[in-house]
User: What shape does this take?
Amino acid sequence: MKSHARVVIVGGGIMGVGLLYHLALEGWTDIVLIEKGELTSGSTWHAAGQCPHFNGSLNMTKVHMYGTELYPRLEKLTGQAVSWHPCGGLRLATTDEEVNWLKYVYGISRLAGYEGEIIGPSEIKKYHPFLETFGIKAAFRTVTDGHVAPADVTNAMATGARNLGATIYRRTRVNDIKLLPNGEWRVFTDQGNIDCEHVVNSAGSYCDVVASWTGHIAPIANMLHQYIITEPVQELIDLKMELPVVRDPYSHAYLREETNGVLVGPYETATAHTCWDGKPPRWDYESELEPNELDRIMPWLEKATERLPLFGQTGIKSVISGAITHTPDGVYLSGPAHGPRNYWMHCGASIGICQGGGAGKYLAQWMVHGQAEINMREFDPRRFGTWATKDYTTEVSVADYHHMYYCYKPAEQHQVGRNLRTSALHDTLAKHGAQFAQIFGWERARWYDRTGEGEAYSFRRSNWWNAVRDEALAVRERVGLMDLSTFAKFEVKGKDAFAFLNRITANKVPEKDGGIILTHLLNENGFIESELTVTRLAADHFYVLSAAAAQLYDMDQLSWRKREDESVTIADVTDSYGVLILAGPKSRDVLKACTDTDLTSPSFRWLTAKTRTVAGVENVRLLRMTYVGELGWELHVPRAGMQQVFDALMKAGAPHGLSLFGTYAMNSLRMEKAYRGWGSELTAEIDMFEASMERFIRTDKPDFIGKAASLSRKQKGARMKLVYLGVDNTDSDCMGNEPVYRDGKVVGVTTSGGFGHATGTSLAFAYVPPDATAIGTEFDIMVFGEMRKARVIPESIWDPENARIRA
Ligand SMILES: Cc1cc2nc3c(=O)[nH]c(=O)nc-3n(C[C@H](O)[C@H](O)[C@H](O)COP(=O)(O)OP(=O)(O)OC[C@H]3O[C@@H](n4cnc5c(N)ncnc54)[C@H](O)[C@@H]3O)c2cc1C
Assistant: This one.
């Protein structure tokens, strides 16, 4: 066995092997994969092998699409035969909201470029003569979907990797992993040890155990999943074509043809459970199946028989019952783990056969080039923190499994696994009707429901519309108060803190105490990694804020950039402070009633901060800035004082008509100010010039990480540019990832949108070709299958001079 390698991958299922192959294709060949049994002997060998395109996420669609394009070519590429069945697929819709979803996904198919169409129930028989169409409102037909033998495709990628120089050790078990003082990882196996620069956890059902050796978390549950194959059916023997794979919300199952029989795999909507009582499998568990539980899944099988009577026509040939890894959000984990560098997760896939090729390709790009060509945020394992405990993971994964073919409307979330992280004001806000959404474990208010109805989730504007309009207008006309305690918060301290922050961020760090800047962390290629607000509390003390969801991600971004010779400490203080946003023309009057501080502009200017007593609570950090484009302050309050400050502001605000507001109103307000969002407009495949953020790049600074690459990217010219669009108003707004057309051709993509209540305009951001950014340029945006006119408008539609902010 080798004693050193650049990369060691633990686990030889499709995820590990897919990564090995693509690392080799990227040119890294000193790479090793270690498998305790035979390749595919975990979950991979027994999978049904379906590879669908239909998906509500553009990035995930690209992952799926890559696999379906690669697998049929693998035999040619590697010499190893792969049985690919290009039978197509039908995703059925049985409610109006599901039809809306099909229309949204149709837009994604236009962006991704795969062949698909929405067909009516009467057309279904043309493609699937045996399907009963009761209750079906529409179907999404994909043409190039298929299914594949999972072992074939994995072994072909293994052959391809070996051909390029990669090494695979079978029948070798990894027993431990340790970080070495030189930053490398030591992988302990029963055949000897290997040191490596990068270690990858692709251990499938064991990935949480493997993660625990190094103090990492891999939030997965091993769900029991079953599919049934019948004996051959005469009608299918006689059929000249292969039937498309059907995904049916009625039976909550996939139904397809398999060797002239029918294959049905239901995702039970109740009674699903984990394997092995929630414990990891035995170490000698290899190519085994679990006892079947046919009686338990009978209700869904009966519905499948109603949908496809051929299924009930003949006897059962085999039942496959096995473990499937499942994460709480149903998306696999792929990317760096939080903590020391170069520990990567690549596991947790529940549709891993379809995803193994694409997931491997994009993680290989990230490892080799420092970033992938797609946005990897939704796969990043750091979207889960320590709040994702075993109990939470199991409860939510079971719920997610129950909802596999359920159509989640935008903003709709699981109701289990909630209230993990709550603001000090949670119960108070709930009494005001707060409608909470979960974000990075936190509960955060979206809007305030005065009717007690709760949110009616929909793809279109729904019952929150009037309340959100009132909240947004209160901020524009009077004053609004919002709890944004979810901000990720860091303290950067030490004698080199100023130099360190200046070296790693693109903007100039304030030279005076109390100064605030918005700034970005770029990677070495000049792309945008993070957006931070940096407040200078003292020469050696900075308060750094970022998005709730970026708490672990940005902690890594900051600490990975610190050099050993820099005297700097970085502490996460997220839970120590609550945050209140007080904004609107009357905000000064309200705050004045609660503090002795002089709040007038000359002594408390925009983009400055002071630490003061507010409502008797000491050490409140007052930051004069908001994300809503009005006069206002962020109050960063020691957590214990939140209720006191909140009560005082509510009381002082009452005569001014203060209103609570939530994230829906905040989105409306920030869209009116054309403020970009991290994760939507600002992502790691975009540079600052493309995002029209050049004013935040200080090229007059001697150097900062990503400066040289940014400047050379600028010289080369933008591939696309962000534009701000006014969109024709109907009953819905852009959500992001809608295709943007010009002269009948897809030329761009929306990144986010919303309705500006103060301006009465539906607004969106989109990336379009650089020669189509002039004010007035017209586009068509496909929103739920309909073309909506949009035109480039000047930034911003509300208070372009920032006069209100500086008031
Ligand atoms: C019944 C069923 C049907 C399915 N149908 C489909 C489908 O139609 N389409 C689809 O896309 N997906 C399907 N799946 C899901 C798919 O099987 C999984 O998503 C996929 O196989 C996961 O691959 P993996 O590489 O992450 O895990 P695995 O295949 O489990 O691979 C992990 C490997 O790591 C090895 N390992 C673990 N720990 C160690 C260690 N310490 N040392 C050395 N080796 C180690 C294991 O032995 C194992 O071989 C199905 C799953 C089931 C159960």
Remarks:
- The longest strand covers residues 745-756.
